[in-house]
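User: Predict structure, ligand biotin.
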Amino acid sequence: MKSRALIGLMADGNVHSGESLASSLGISRTAIWKQVKRAVAEGYDIDTIRGRGYRLKTPVDLLSHEDIVRHLPPAICQRLQLDVLDEVDSTNAEIIRRRPSLGSPVIPVCIADCQTAGRGRRGRQWQSPRGENLYLSLGLTFRGGFAMLDGLSLVLGVAAAEALEAAGVDRVGLKWPNDLFLGRGKIAGILVELQGELEEGVVQVVAGIGLNVHMRRAEGVDQAWESLAIASPEAHWSRNLLSARLIASLVAAADQFSSEGFEAFLDRWQARDIFAGQELTTSQSDLAGIGRGIDAAGNYLLDTGQALVPVRAGEISLRVQS
Ligand code: BTN
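Assistant: Predicted complex:
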């Protein structure tokens, strides 16, 4: 973002004269005018108010490495290598490119202001408009082989839900396996990708979360969605504070998952299950039943009337019967 300094000055949404902006940045008023044009081309909504100056139509919540670090517990912060980027194809892809060396205890974390090729589950795109939402990925290492990955995905959903609840978001629901819901709309999605096996049984994964923060409109999203700004318009949402809370919660959950396994998360997941008691069907409509929560391996249980049938994450998706 070339206009970052300008946007930083205007972030409050007040009117700023060309003269005051020019003097703050040590450039001419003509240079400010050019920067405003560039910022508009980058996607910022800026009003030019004749005789008064410029105003961002909606205040901007800029990402700041310093501010995220300030909000992180020091014991977690010192384990991270945190990169805050202006733009990237996908934060998951970036973590995969930065694959840490064998045995390194450092947890790489990448946050970007926008993604040009954000990826969702099942090969879908993840809409990642600039400045609106949170796009965050971490590289994690686990013992236990590939078999633990289904459980991990649910664990990260619990951790993200708990982080949002601690930030004041009410009644965060989990849609199996790991979508976060507010009411009937999806507020966040998690994508866990396998990086590889370092040595026998030691797997590296990248866990990415996309959280809708300020977004008020989205084109081409084919499912009901929510954002924190829509759900709680009166609240002030800081992407830096939310990032710090999410990172701290995800790292703590990964530690607990490593030492205690999935069992420590089972009840925490069930308490937020939005499918419980609903009439569900698999994506291929070959199985239908009432949602009865997850089993000890993280499979979703469908009560068909004859039996409790476990549905495995990664194989099938579930939806509420219409
Ligand atoms: C889903 O489909 O629900 C999962 C969406 C995951 C999106 C996040 S945004 C940060 C990270 N980088 C990506 O490219 N995808 C994940």
